[in-house]
Specification:
Layout (H helix, E strand, L loop, with lengths): L4 E6 L3 H6 L13 E8 L5 E10 L2 E6 L4 H9 L8 E4 L4 E4 L7 E3 L4 E5 L6 H11 L35 H10 L5 E7 L9 E4 L2 E9 L3 E6 L6 E3 L2 E5 L2
Parallel strand pairs: 2-7
Antiparallel strand pairs: 1-4, 1-5, 2-3, 3-4, 6-8, 7-8, 9-12, 9-14, 10-11, 10-13, 11-12, 13-14
Length: 240
Amino acid sequence: MRHLAQLDFAGPDAAPFLQGYLTADLEQLEPGRALPMALTNLKGRVIASGWVGGESDRVRLFVHPTVTAILSRELGKYLLFAKSKLTQAQTGLGLSGDPSPDSLELSPVGYHVTPGTSDEGHAAFAEACVNAGFVLVAEAIAGSFLPQMIGLTAIGAVSFAKGCYLGQEVVARAEHRGQVKQQLRRYRFDGGGPALGADVTAGPKKIGTVAAVGSSTVLAAVRSNDSPVFADGCRLAISA
């Protein structure tokens, strides 16, 4: 199963165009490294998260496969006046903990992606994302959270020094207040894990939402530290 997909922007204004829509500062693009980023809507809610890499006239976005259509639809609204085109790559993505001559580093997960190769390493990569606290937003939770709620500001996916981008005013206001209603926390579980997007509960009260699921831990955006907590009938224990 693929856990990462690639979208390509090609054209003379590829990077300048995306600079107005992604939370990362594309002026910081450099060879061999992809920047963590998010695309938010006008309400500041994250539609997609992942990485952006490449050059000024050819930019690559690496996101969860289930949000490629959403991302294409949202950006397509504004591409009519751009000099660049958006396409989904048809080749595979190799994912490894070791770099190669053509790979890009995916910080802070500790993995490297090599476009144009056969698909490999995807399951281990997905587990590494959870272990690193990186929420790779999938369709089940797209549009649900501010970046701060799922830890994207903490891992450097949002630049507060660049200019405006879609949803920037809301995200900046939340950062200025220094507090959001939900925060990302890690929980352990035994047996089968809960579904992505499942409600996290403490007794009869919903306190959050499952944002990422690993082999034995989940990341959830929650309102409190109440314990015990459950999700889809699965008992969760707060993890250090």
